[in-house]
Amino acid sequence: MSARLHILVPGPRALRASLVATSWAGLAVASAAFAQPVIPAPEDAAATPAGYAAADPATASATDAYTSFRTEFDAGRYTAAVSHAERVLELTKAQATAPTAEEVQVALMNLGMVQNLSGDYVGAESTYLEVIKLIESSGRPLQDRLARAYGGLASAYHDGKRHDLAVASFDQAIALRRRHEGLLTVQQVPLVEKYIDSLTELGRYPEALQAQKYLLRIATRQHGATSPQLAPTLEEIGRWYASIGAYDQSRRTLRQALEIVEAAEGPDSPLLVGPLLAIAACNRRQLLDPAAQSLTSPDEQREALFHDPGAMLVPAQMSATALAAEGERSLLRAAQIVDQAAEPSPVAVLNVRTQVGDWYQVRNQPDRAREHYQQAWRAAARVTDKLNGKSYTEAIFGQPVLLHLFRPDDWNRHTKRPPAEVEVRNAVVEYTVSAQGRVESTKVVEDSGDKKRGEKTAAALQNTARYRPRLENGEPVATPGVQFSQPWVLLLPPPATPAQGEKN
Question: CATH no. for residue 196?
């Protein structure tokens, strides 16, 4: 394999969450919450601005530009769509009767959206701030569009990892939504989900928990307090608890989901699969989380996570043996439910069997993992659709996937210092991932001038990393040339005072 694979490790909290795959590692699909272009009422449409003659060449040009924008957008080519959205905005501004005209607002909304989707978060911020100013100064601000504009701005801040600014914008967007649509509407759900993520990134767990409970209120109002349709919402809450280390509360919530579904639909309902997989992911995460071992009691866990003894009720902690047994049972039960369906979905089989394989892989049972990976591979081979332009077998099993790694504590040192006080450096290690998912033949290819950092990174990979191996024709194979990139932060010395400078 000539092409080198490169793994860039995210920040501390995101990395902790990624160490244990709760779905297909590396295959997360971006939320579509802000991925739809603004489709206004006909009189607002930027493609056909009201008040212009149909034969106007400029109007025709705007229509053509909008058509090109939609073509690129619908194909998922967001970077290419940006230039067309910019052209639409340019032509619309030239034709508009006023700078605050609604068709200008629409053109700006579409531009901000594709800027964000293409990764230009700074550009999206500027665009959304401009449209917010226009809407608020128009003399008749539309709450719906203003809510969407604040939601877009919040999404740009969120995706750009500026979570403090994201929270403030989400607050605005959600308040406008509630004022315009009502208190408990499903349209708020995508906003609240991202809002929870930003709060969690900031460590504001009590607020995030309240937002989670709000989502449950929305789902309960929509479906009823005993409806099995509550299971997906309870599953998300359970996964969130696990992501912050509240493992016991995670299981409590997920078991509630199981009870509701079983009471309504019986023990073989497909709606059980999600909570079962989430229980296994929670237990796997706790088994591998060194921080979980330092919390000696549920009370200490509660205090450490929420700074509020009344924030949650935590049952007695489980032993490692009990955690492992429950996790394995949950996975195998989920696999059984999927397999015995009248017409088993290849995608569902792929999902479940991959996660069962990952479980055994991190449990140091590669032979058992191999059996399930092979079943997953055969299911993937039956899927005719493409995933990110690749076949499912190539997208999921075409390269090794990191499932677990114990990181030296000092890797995250100084990350919260102001940028002026630190310098980000990098250690890069190259190695082979064996057919058993172990790291072999490590070589430090970059250490940013700190040999010990490179050696420590290589040792951690060699000793603790577990991978889902690459498959060829359904068989695990070794993959050379894999690279792991570990950023680390160097604390800079304080700047010299003028007196020190003169003395020197």
Answer: 1.25.40.10
